[in-house]
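Reviewers asked in the last cycle whether our approach scales beyond single polypeptides. To address this, we selected a multi-component target totalling 929 residues and predicted its structure end to end. The input consisted of the following lines:
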Amino acid sequence: MSTVLQPAGASSRRRIWRNAGAILGVGIVGFITLVAILAPWLAPHDPFTIDLGRRVIPPMWMEGGTPDNILGTDQLGRDYLSRLIYGARVSMIIGVATIITSGIIGTFLGVMGGFYGGRVDDAVVFAITARLSIPVVLVALAVAGFSGGASFTLVILVLGLLLWDRFAVVARSTTMQIRNLDYVAAARCAGCSPMTVLLKEVLPNIATHLAVVATLEMALAILLEAALSFLGLGVPPPEPSWGLMISEAKEYMFFSPWVIMIPGIALFVLVLGVNLLGDALRDMLGTDLSR
Amino acid sequence: MSTPAIEVRGLRREFRASQGLFAPPRRVVAVDDVSFSVPAGSVLGVVGESGCGKTTLARMILGLMEPSAGEVLVDGKRLEGMDRLARARLIQPVFQDPFSSLNPRRRVRDIIAMPLVAQGNVTTSEIDRRVAESLERVGLSTEQGTRFPSQLSGGQRQRVAIARALVLRPRIVVCDEPTSALDVSVQAQILNLLAELRRDLGLTYLFISHNLAVVEHVASEVAVMYLGRIVERRESEALFRDPRHPYTRALLDSVLTPEPGLGVPDVGLGDIMPDPANIPPGCRFHPRCPACFAPCAATAPRITSLEDGLVECHLAG
Amino acid sequence: MSALLDIEDLRVTFGGTAAVRGISLTVEKGETHCLVGESGCGKSVTSLAVMGLLAKGGKREAARLSFAGEDIRDYNEAQMSRLRGDRMAMIFQEPMTSLNPAYTVGSQMTEVLRRHRGTPRAQAVDRAVELLTRVGITAPGLRLGQFPHQLSGGLRQRVMIAMALMCDPELLIADEPTTALDVTVQAQILRLLAELQKDLGLGILLITHDLGIVARVADRVSVMYAGEVVESAPTAELFRAPRHPYTRGLLSCVPVPGKVKRDEPLGSIPGVVPRIPPGFTGCAFRDRCSFAEAACAGTLPRRNVGPAHELRCILPEGVPA
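The resulting structure, written as structure tokens, was:
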């Protein structure tokens, strides 16, 4: 009921900068993405080089630390900072690849169900309900266990095939709302085929909502990958996944707490950043589908 | 006699509303055995209140919804089974809400070009030419053609909707409450534009509205709908001068003209609301009718032909 | 005897935009004052400003804003909250969004009385039944237990009116109360309001864009354009002799059944409502006015052109009759 007209683009951009959470989210995700991309140039040492003579050295600022290894070394003498930096790669790649896979599957199913209704929709709803009844972590473990160990591709596939439900639900409900709007009716009257209507009228208008879902699912994917790696069924060693680093640090938890705290904090910060980014996107893009 | 632009025979549309797992689904008859024909070049106004079925009727005539029974003929050809591109060249819509009838993510000129692009056999230069022509016809500038709908006012958006409807040069335009969501001063502009276009392009309009004064201004013939049926259909002037159905009379009495000192009339319809899911037996208007008498609750009235139309009422027989 | 509602020079701004730019009006006891204008003119914002319900970011100032003799300009939220629903009530355009869909009609209605007067539940229910009957709802006991979505639009609006009357308010502000309703139901609701006003001595500020409603229902009319009142007069006088070019234009746009000439175009006002930038002076209508002169860009005088008939226009007598 606003009787004061606001220009569409400019004020929403202003709004995003006024929101502290948004700035933080964008900053964190942007920073970690950069780190991931520039890893080979940023890491002071090779993350894979084992040096058993320099095991479990504490970080530089603690007693016994050396400036050679700013964050110390892990139980195999590998530089921790380098492993952390390369670990960002793992998290980001898996996060992005998973949302692309699950996004495609979920959006396709949701749009089909929402647009065509009837039996197609019944099938889609059944698929979503079935998927929601599956305990993701257990299935992921089972698959990884069955295929005799883990690999990058397997993790992405498993997570992608299991995390599409929120995409499907959002795609379906937004499609159902848009399907009833007059501009879709006008497109049909104009002689557009159902496929054209889907691609040109419906999809562009649900894209923003799906973008919000994508950021939230990415946070989830990153956490799940860490969990899988922690349990030994995610990214295989010696890849420096943060989850794997936490797992390997279990034994040293009480004597050298930093070994487990550092990747733990990194994980927390990344997931927080992605979530804040998702919230900011949602605030900025709004939920009105007809304007 | 030349082919009527629109001919509707025995049109009927039912919906099933689910009542949960245990009750049988409710049957809602939105349009019940409606027939009429609209001569080419004229304007048929359809009036009625919520639940009367006029929007469902419009959607069936546009080909957006399949009738449960009956048929629609557009320019003499059956609508059912018609190729969608051929149908698009014959009949186009202008909808009520200027905010939801334009895709917010596309520019105005792309919105207007859409029907041409869908035809598939029009060259890009021809498309550009026709879009520019359409824009000019509805009084919009080329610059406005580059904007997004959110950058235009309600009246301007409605002009875009009209431009889109006309770009294929259809024979018939179905206007579903085209000015109801607009301000009064803008409404007049759009109505004048529609009248001018009809004269210049030889169009036929099916004009749906709840605003009787607007319909009187625009239509040559008026059909009054109530709970899915046409209860009166007359020449415009005759209907407004001498309405024969009690519902039409009540509608006309309810219109508040800007004439001070007359107060608000008591239309005498009582409190019962029309519900398409619970259509009364006999004459469907009888529970609210101030002139209800013996046969009204028992038998449905037959259609009585008049010299300038028809009416469905026991009083007229 | 002071007016029930007395507004002088009310201004409302949202950030940089001025939504209301200095309006003055009064509502007397037992009188219906209509504020009429098209979308974006600021009429709804005015009503919200009076009630203290402006959205965050809205700033209100006024030379005078008094209700029943009390100056409410500096009332804080708690004080306004005590007034709202009790001595001044408001009904809105969309009964579905102004009735909470999660609560029954009965609980929403009784809540008003219990909150303001501390009335025990049983008595509040009796009063609710009494008012539902008063507004013409049959089987009121049944309705109390129903949820808003189970009622039709006309019924919901009646419930809204009944709810507004629970505490016997002195002032009722109605913002487009019948716009979303069918035309036959509209007539019933307006008749109801007129009856209630006569019986209870209510003062009503009715906001609408429909000149037909204004003519039939209002005692006094203020015409708003782009945040200002451009003309204000008793109803009969305004329709007999509209003096402002905008009022004239508006009246010529409205087709009157029975007086319609099919082959002539409807009168219309060319152009669109402008956005008012900060620091704007002069008449906002000048770009669309056929009587505009250079002086229209300066300050506009407030003129008296008839009995209680005020005009803001450069033309000394407004538009010649």
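Residues 16 and 22 of chain A are 6 Å apart (CA to CA). We regard this as preliminary and will revisit it once experimental data from Aim 1 are available.
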